[in-house]
Amino acid sequence: MTEEGEQLTVKGEFEYAVYELDSMPVTLDAGLKMLFVTQGCLCLEPLLGFDLQVSLKSRQHNLFHLNSDYILSNPNPEETAMVICISLNMDFITRYLPDDLDAFQQFFRKSGFPRRFSAINLHLNPEINAVLHAIENSDHKGFGGDLYIESKVVELLALQWSLADSYLKKGINAVLHSAERAKMENAREILLSQGESQYSLRTLAHMVGTNEYNLKKNFKLVFGTTVYGYLNQHKMEEARSILLKGGTNVAEVAQKMGYKHATHFSSAFKKYFGYLPARLKFLWIFFDPEFLLILL
């Protein structure tokens, strides 16, 4: 096991850490933990006692309330598990959530430990991936770094809340069997690796062993959006990331995203973010690129 990095706010309200898990486990202390599995899978089990063991698969996440020390381990040491853990102080949570928010109060009243904010593990989407990437690659220190990381943690909390609320409204009965979920995972991988060619829904469905109706229904159930909506979301988040790094003009980014005309890309970008990509290029001259994510 190796620990890549860890950041702590001045007030100690949250702590960010990245773990690579192989055969050596990690101990997590009691409290609120946001866990994001970007690769492999993990098990969360109590160090002592008889509380339940919880597992998360690749590209899943959840918010947990731990009442004691827990062991974070990799059940499949042959594949390294990449885990992002954000520990939250209760003061941090209550500052952003109203006291009368029923869903969150129910979270703390649930029986047994560890308590999960969402009854089913949530799936990483392009928005969350972009935020995690921004946190992991931030090199800001001091007050500015704390402020930047805090804004990203709040964003993650909001996105996690939104996804959990969406699953709650769909009902637990809407959860897919592992075989069907695996098909949707496969569809996602094909979708993001198809390059300039774009498969039809029917073709994509046949490639993963299902039909078009089930593909549309189950993909939205797993990822919270439509097939092409997910693809567009992925492209827009990736495009913004490239533009923030600088050195690439809008036309070049449009071509990388598979657009034949930069004007079509700019229209899609504005529809998604609310501003034109050229605005990022202009502001990039005067501001630190990472702080543009806070300004916009």
TrEMBL record:
Highest taxon of source: Bacteria
GO function terms (MF aspect): DNA-binding transcription factor activity; sequence-specific DNA binding
Key word Hydrolase present: no
Oxidoreductase found in the keyword field: no
SUPFAM superfamilies, alphabetized: Homeodomain-like (SSF46689)
Residue stretches making up the HTH araC/xylS-type domain: 185-283
Protein's UniProt name: HTH araC/xylS-type domain-containing protein
